Prior knowledge:
Number of strands: 8
Oligomer: single chain
Low-confidence stretches: 300-310
Protein name: Origin recognition complex subunit 5
Largest sheet: 5 strands, parallel
GO biological process, one term: DNA replication initiation
Radius of gyration: 29 Å
CATH topology of the largest domain: Rossmann fold
Order of helices and strands: HHEHEHHEHHEEHHHHHHHHEHHEEH
Organism: Gymnorhina tibicen
GO cellular component, one term: nuclear origin of replication recognition complex
Mean pLDDT: 83
Helix content: 40-55%
Shape: flat
Strand order of the largest sheet: 2-3-4-1-5
Family: Belongs to the ORC5 family.
Distance between the termini: 61 Å
Structural class: alpha/beta
Amino acid sequence: xxxxxxxxxxxxxxxxxxxxxxxxxxxxxxxxxxxxxxxxxxxxxxxxxxxxxxxxxxxxxxxxxxxxxxxxxxxxxxxxxxxxxxxxxxxxxxxxxxxxxxxxxxxxxxxxxxxxxxxxxxxxxxxxxxxxxxxxxxxxxxxxxxxxxxxxxxxxxxxxxxxxxxxxxxxxxxxxxxxxxxxxxxxxxxxxxxxxxxxxxxxxxxxxxxxxxxxxxxxxxxxxxxxxxxxxxxxxxxxxxxxxxxxxxxxxxxxxxxxxxxxxxxxxxxxxxxxxxxxxxxxxxxxxxxxxxxxxxxxxxxxxxxxxxxxxxxxxxxxxxxxxxxxxxxxxxxxxxxxxxxxxxxxxxxxxxxxxxxxxxxxxxxxxxxxxxxxxxxxxxxxxxxxxxxxxxxxxxxxxxxxxxxxxxxxxxxxxxxxxxxxxxxxxxxxxx
Length: 433
């Protein structure tokens, strides 16, 4: 029995829609109830929120396209100003019109112009008898535009006196959108994260035709057992599944195991999945490089720059703070004057290093250092003058949160906080480049 039922839409279209949006049947059913029939006025504005890769954009695009509902789909990151956004909506309305082959240039400077041109565009397409849907993806960008843009979209149906519904898609909750002056409250709807069962079902649908569905489903089960605790992103998991499946099949291709011999298959794929754990989200190497690495049986470190940390992007001064922290952790205090002062005077070379100091400091590990020493080294290695503002201190706190620095001792010490640098020399070299 199909899960999606609605008297206004053909059963074949609903059946196709259900097959295209697995594990989101309840959300689609709710949206169909809100939309109603084509000629009915729907809710003026709908706010859909949920974490990254929870299916918001895909479900809306698939729903509107499969049921052939008139719609406009705009990404607010691409059209980041109010003028670009309003003009793009009008251009898409024009281009979808069947009576005009070429799109005329659209100039829309104000919201009043948009309302006037929108009425003309809707009238030219004879859309008065059915609901037009305007979907604004990444809608949190609307908060950076003029103050009247968001309230106007929320009640666009009232302003234009047309059958239009605005759908806002976002990763943040509505409470962070609501203007201080108040506005029309949209219908809010939450898309929860996919559970491990949902991910198993969705990813198993992409099995290659040359292998059985059970074989690929067992592979997906192994993949999720490794990555589910650190990665819930469906797109990333789908990428990892496609990237590592060839290695999983190697024993079967060579004839060393059959499709049901899960123990041998697991022992073959386990070390390669551990290597792949180092590159989750970071995209440090291309898919072709990763496949070549698997084929050659090499280690990830053999590729230049491949490390789970060397490509972490940090703010400008955070990089200098991290370099200064590394120097403070691995250089003795008595060498600061020698390394960081231009006129440090004469230093006797004899007996400068004690016997126990001839051991490499990298073997002894990082030493704690006070905050004032960190800032003093920072001021000496940065070319321009740096003021000790709250921004600098907040970046130190961020480095501790990222576990690139660690705080040593108690916070209530009279001599201030002390830190240790926890990153490796390769990391610092990459930052310094």
